[in-house]
Amino acid sequence: MNLDPKYITQYGNNLIQEILAYSPRVISAFLILFIGLYAIRVINRLVRKIMLKRKFEVTLTQFLGDILLWGLRILLFVTFISKLGIETSSFVAILGAMGLAVGLSLQGSLSNFAGGMLIILFKPFKDGDLIEAQGMVATVSEIQIFVTKLITANNQVVFIPNGILSNGIITNYSMLGNRRADLTFSISYDSDIKRAKEIIIELLNDNPKVLQNPKPEVFVRNLTDSAIELAVRPWATNENFGSVFTEVLENCKTAFDKAGIVIQPYVKEKSADKD
Q1: Would you tell me how many other CB atoms lie within 10 Å of the CB of residue 93?
Q2: Burial of 263 (0-12, 13-18, 19+ CB in 10 A)
Q3: Half-sphere exposure of residue 269, counting CA atoms within 13 Å on the CB side?
C-alpha cells in the first residue's frame, strides 16, 4: 500500500498545530504543579512551626502536618489533571469508590486511627509517662497514629493498638508528678507498737528521697490472728519511687532487728471448722 506524501504532510501539519495549540495548557499545568509543590512545602513548614510555637504536642503536630501535606497534594493533583483537560468527575468518583472499598477492608485500622486521634487530642498520657494498660506496666516511648509503643522495665518493646488502648482503663503513674508507696509490716503481738512506729517515722524523716509534703503516714492497719499490721505510706517523686520503696523495706527490717521488734511471718488463716 502506497502512502500519498500529501496525506503525510497534512497529518504532520495537523499534529504540529495540535501540539502548538495544546502546549500552552501543558506548560501552564506543569507550572502549576511545580509552583504548587513548592508552595505546599513552604505552607507545611510554616504550619508546623506555628503549632510548635503554640506548644502543640509533637505527635499531634506531625499528624496534622501530614494530613495537611497530603490533602494539599491531592488538591494540587486534581487541579493539575483538570488543567490538562482530563475530566475530573469520573476520576473523583473512582477515588470515592476506592476509598469506600479500602475503608471497609480496613475497619480495624480505622478503629486504631480513631483511637490514636482520641489519645492525641485528649492526652491521657504522653511520651515518657509510666502507665498501666491492657495488663502492661510500661513507659510510653512513642504515640503513633495506629499503635502506641511502650518499653517495659526489662527493656522489651510492646506495641498496643490505639483502638483497644483508648477504649480501656489507663492508669497514668506519671501525670501528677508524685507517687505514694503503700507498704505493710506485720509485727508480732509481743512487739512494742509505739516503738515500731517511732522507728519507721525516724527512718522516713531521715531519708532525703521521702517527701515531707505530703507527710508520710504510719498507722495500725489491721489486727489479725497472728500479727499486728502497720501501714507505711511514704511519698516520693516518680524518679525516686522505686528507690524509696526498696530502701524503706530494707532499712525498716535492719532497724527492727536492732530494736528487737519481730516481723511476724505471714500465716494463712484457717477456715472455721464445720460442725
Answers
A1: 10
A2: middle
A3: 7
